[in-house]
Amino acid sequence: MFLCAQLLLFIASAAIACLAARVDVSWDICYLHVNRVGEGTRLAIGANGKLPIPPVYMTRGDTLYLHVHNSLNVSTTVHAHGIFQNGTVYNDGTAMITECSIPPGDNHTYIIAPEQEGTFWLHGHYDEDNADGLRAALIIYEKEPIVDYDAEYLFAVEDWYSTEFIERMKQIVHTGITGNLPITYSRALINGDLGNFTKPIKFEPSKKYRIRFINMAATNWFKISMPGHKMQIIEIEGVHSVPYDVDQFDVGPGQRISVLVEAKDTDEFNYNYNITLYLIDNSFVSGANPLYYSGLIEYRENAPVYQSPPIEDNYQWAEDINMNAFDGEPLLEPVTRKIVLNYQQKILSDGLPHYLLGDHPYQSPLVPTLFTALTMGDLATDPAIYGPQTVAYVLDHMDIVEIELHNPGSPDHTFHLHGHTFQIIEYGPTNATSEDNSTEIAVRKSAGAPMRRDTLMVRAWNYVKVRFRADSPGVWFFHCHMSTHLYLGLAVTFVEAPLLLQKQIQVPDEYYKMCQKQSIKTSGNGAGNAGYNFTGLPPIPT
Ligand SMILES: *[C@@H]1O[C@H](CO)[C@@H](O)[C@H](O)[C@H]1NC(C)=O
Ligand SMILES: *[C@@H]1O[C@H](CO)[C@@H](O)[C@H](O)[C@H]1NC(C)=O
Ligand SMILES: *[C@@H]1O[C@H](CO)[C@@H](O)[C@H](O)[C@H]1NC(C)=O
Ligand SMILES: *[C@@H]1O[C@H](CO)[C@@H](O)[C@H](O)[C@H]1NC(C)=O
Ligand SMILES: *[C@@H]1O[C@H](CO)[C@@H](O)[C@H](O)[C@H]1NC(C)=O
Ligand SMILES: *[C@@H]1O[C@H](CO)[C@@H](O)[C@H](O)[C@H]1NC(C)=O
Ligand SMILES: *[C@@H]1O[C@H](CO)[C@@H](O)[C@H](O)[C@H]1NC(C)=O
Ligand SMILES: *[C@@H]1O[C@H](CO)[C@@H](O)[C@H](O)[C@H]1NC(C)=O
Ligand SMILES: [Cu+2]
Questions:
Q1: Ligand 8 centroid to 538 CA: how many Å?
Q2: Coiled coil located at which positions (predicted)?
Q3: pLDDT, tens only, 179-195
């Protein structure tokens, strides 16, 4: 096994700003023993011997070469969350969906060259290695900023548990879905520091700051406020918005928001910023939820801290439904493909708890779904060919897809769509009856150019409708971004325009080699066989 090497980071930035640059980043992905929140040492996954993994910065038009060496004793992958990989779906980094994964000891280079800008992140997508630390910010600067500001700060927030993900998961599965979840609640890390020990951010009077928030948490929500300051949301997940005033906002797992903050005109006082962590799977742990953290906005060393009046603690979700996309893209219509998904928790035939979005809990097939789509000829348009455990939906090229996702239960979830952003169209209450109606909301619809994003929040007992255009042939995962829920099966697969995909995509050889090394087939149906012969496919729980 390889030892974690020292930091290997080469950034080749072009001397002239307008030239596209090549950005090389090397990650030696490795195990680490860390004590990140002072509650004891645990096994984690980092890169180059470090946690947190430093943010990656690039400018629109640049190409990022992410060189991965796998020093783990299991496979790994890296996904660039929010990056479209339009025409390069094989670089999406999802194990057994778009690739076979990088075997232990191997190297692989992901190429990330988006015509996109904004706030993204990189994370593991093999099992839930993201929850054990394999995550880092990815910032893509605009070539020409849409809004003027003087400087910017990044807050990459994480939740961190004192036990490894798989240990926690075993406890959850053991306890079952009806019992109480084990009380191993998380703490907040802000830019890698324990919540209340975050370094001050410095403001100069009358300047404007862009502050980016990335929720890289495994499971939990954050609410953010900067009492005493005016905040405007200007970007959500790589989509510029018409500036929208807020005094607080939420970011769920996988979500990102940029705000523009105006500094005060004097340095008479310093201020607090406040970041609250909501423990979604442990909401019953009274006194421990939520957890309040704060840090300093420093105008002048040792200036007194202004005591802002408290902001009402009205835990909601981002006001994306009220917002408008800056580019004015109108509501996509008419809908040509409607997909209704219902969240369910069930004990299935295997006696274990599962979370479902379709008919079955998502489980990996024996052939990555992308390779099935590429090798099954005309049969690739039949969702059955991918195997029932992929919960596949086949979309026609240029379909206007509406997903209506119901959460007739609790807790809240965030769902991430790979390869696209979607328009947020509508929120409302489900028809299911909750014991506590306080979480239900009135129907709210978008008006004007709907805001787009790649990760939605659906609150307990509510539904959400989103729309996107199927204009990027590929195989795109749609899944709950809460690691515990994804592990229990809360995902479906969108196979978009497979016949066009077969004509357009040439998967690089190295991806086939990664499969061969692990004896994973690269052709055939979801079981790796011809036609509808599913011999060898493990039975799916029903
Ligand atoms: C993989 O390495 C980790 C960390 O050293 C160790 O805890 C684990 O038992 C190893 N697993 C296998 C299958 O060797
Ligand atoms: C992986 O890359 C490192 C340098 O980053 C090199 O030393 C090593 O030989 C490579 N390993 C394989 C299996 O290609
Ligand atoms: C962080 O500090 C604030 C202010 O001292 C305190 O109220 C809060 O409880 C602390 N948070 C945690 C999780 O310890
Ligand atoms: C922000 O946090 C500080 C320190 O914990 C606390 O004193 C203050 O009341 C909080 N402000 C708001 C508006 O919640
Ligand atoms: C709830 O039920 C009513 C009456 O059956 C129906 O019209 C409506 O579409 C349902 N709403 C949702 C969100 O399913
Ligand atoms: C919630 O709504 C249902 C249906 O309208 C009603 O029967 C129930 O009493 C309500 N529960 C509470 C706690 O208000
Ligand atoms: C993908 O590329 C095609 C062709 O350039 C373009 O029409 C489409 O809008 C793109 N879709 C996404 C999601 O990037
Ligand atoms: C189905 O696939 C299995 C495994 O590849 C193979 O052994 C078997 O002959 C196939 N059955 C038919 C009817 O082709
Ligand atoms: Cu979930």
A1: 15
A2: none
A3: 555 556 689 999 999 99
